[in-house]
Amino acid sequence: MIYGLGILKGLGVTLKHFIYSYIEDVRYLFEGGRYQPRHLPARQGPRARGVFTVQYPKEKLPLPENFRYIPFLVYDTQENKIKCTSCGICAKVCPPQCIWIVRGTDPSTGRPKPEPEAFYIDATICMSCGFCAEFCPFDAIKMDHNYELSSYERYESLLFDLPRLLKPDTYHAQIHPSDWARELAEKEAEKAKKGEKAAAHTSA
């Protein structure tokens, strides 16, 4: 066994990346430079060579669709209402108990309404596990992709209230296209099933 062989191998890898960096710079020179936005997927791919840096915040790594961060509430733009019915399942399954919900009430009757009057998520203790989105029976809460939540204080700015949590379903469709397509397919299937039942009832 030769002592120091592992160190030499590691230095060899570093040297190889160093040399490849200049080779790649020359190759990308004829394509506008390696830091063009269109080259970011190739530079971050498994076949990328050399040493490079993501120029954050001008450049950002592409996020996978199932990326999870602080949840948000979906606002149904077609029905013009909040999808949340304040059933409280998300608050029950939340491991760190960072969700608080106040159910709305009808001022004329005093009875509860299927919508939240207040909804809070404490981002300082949320672990972004996604249980709330997974167990929600109405697809009303989803995991966000916005991870830039830095603040100079950790209390008021990181306690998300209902206006801050609400985002339109078009935003949900943009960051979760597969999930959105599944929801639309389920709606169409349910609509077709109701149509078949109505047709069978009228024919009978």
Overview of this structure, please?
With 204 residues, this protein is an alpha+beta fold. The chain has helices spanning 5-29, 40-43, 89-93, 131-135, 162-165, 169-175, 177-203, and strands spanning 69-76, 81-82, 99-105, 112-122, 141-144, 159-160, 166-168. The chain folds into 2 domains: 1-61, no CATH class; 69-193, 2-Layer Sandwich (Alpha-Beta Plaits), CATH 3.30.70. The chain contains 7 helices and 7 strands. The strands form 2 sheets. Strands 1, 2, 5 and 7 form a 4-stranded mixed sheet that branches. Strands 3-4-6 form a 3-stranded antiparallel sheet. Strand 3 (99-105) and strand 4 (112-122) form a beta hairpin. The chain is elongated, with a radius of gyration of 25 Å. The relative contact order is 0.12.
